[in-house]
Amino acid sequence: MSARALVRLGVVLLLVLAARPVSAYLEFVIPVRGTPTALKWDASRPVRWFARDRGVNGVTASAWQTAVAHAFGTWEAVPTSNISFSFGGFTGASPFADDGVSVIGFESAPELERVLGSTSFLIDTVTGEIIESDIFFNSTFPWSTAAAGDPARFDLESVALHEIGHFIGLGHSALGETELIGENSRRVLASGAVMFPISFGRGVTLDRALQPDDIAGVSDLYPSDGFRAATGAVRGRVVRSGGRGVPGAHVVAFHVATGTLVGGFTLNDEGEFEIAGLLPGPQVIRVEPLDDADVESFFDASDPIDVDFRVTYYERLFVAPAGGVGPHITVTVRPK
Ligand SMILES: [Zn+2]
Questions:
Q1: pLDDT in tens, 118-165
Q2: Ligand 1 mean position to 333 CA, how many Å?
Q3: Distance, CA 317 to ligand 1 centroid (Å)?
């Protein structure tokens, strides 16, 4: 028996959003027969996608298909991950149609005035397998596929790389740093992940390349042979001084030798977390709260996320073992 459900996850790339420097990769997890299960494709064969046969002002259908195909190729080229893709061809179908076909294309959505693009899924709720995923790019905005970018337009390949991260099952990373502009707009100063939920803005092509946090995320979902043996994991809890768990905290692992940042979140009321895909060796573990204003791009509004605590470092260096999980750690945080 198979039950299918359309899940329109809140995975939109925003122009402006309040945020603070934080780090992590996140997978989409749903309960499957009572067990938390990560949404993912059956990666034993290439995942097929179709391109909507429609361009927008300044970008032909052919040009944007080339940019999107390049972005798929960037994810496929991650050596520690085994997911692959195949282009099925152009189609007249809309990315908003739930037809069992994964369609990527433009739609006009002027009411989504801060949304560059978004990704939706059809999933098998018995297995957690992704059956269909569609990506729409908002044609209300000006787009570019110019090799060096266009200062007046958004770089299609950069946004495609982000949305394809969702397409394969990744949520948002919180690794990024922004500054406030005016009342409630923010500009991205630096980002440690393509899966950071706020766009760099017009003309910037930095998100054409994956970062270590993105690579850890896709490799954890679709590990190649040898990935588990070559990397380690940190597991533990974030708690209050009385022992109560802290849900929705960021846990960031900083690999001292390379400067690589990879992170995760505490995902339950016990404050438990696990971050896999870490390079072996000493890591500095930092715990920090999600800012109020951007919780919704990481968690459902109904999730009880605790943000009222200070940034806290684990008091020792954590040594990630190759091919295993290090000793469980507990980080105790204090109220702000
Ligand atoms: Zn997103």
A1: 888 888 877 888 889 999 899 999 999 999 999 999 999 999 999 999
A2: 29
A3: 32
**Alpha carbon of 28 to ligand 1 centroid (Å):** 12
CA–centroid distance, 123 to ligand 1, in Å, is: 18
| Record: fold of 229-333 | Immunoglobulin-like (2.60.40)
Q: Which residues surround ligand 1, an ion (CB under 5 A)?
A: 11, 13
- Please state the domain extents for the chain: 4-219, 229-333
Q: What number is the average pLDDT over the span 181-198?
A: 78
Which letter, b or e, does each residue of 32-71 get, where b requires 16 or more Cβ atoms within 10 Å of its Cβ? beeeebebbbebeeebebbbbebbbeebebebbbebbbeb
Q: How far is the CA of 118 from the centre of ligand 1 (A)?
A: 7
Q: Does domain 4-219 have CATH number 3.40.390.10?
A: yes
The pTM for the full model equals 0.88
According to DSSP, residue 192 is labeled S
Give the Å distance between the CA of 88 and the centre of ligand 1.
24
C-alpha dihedral over 188, 193, 196, 198, to 10 degrees?
30
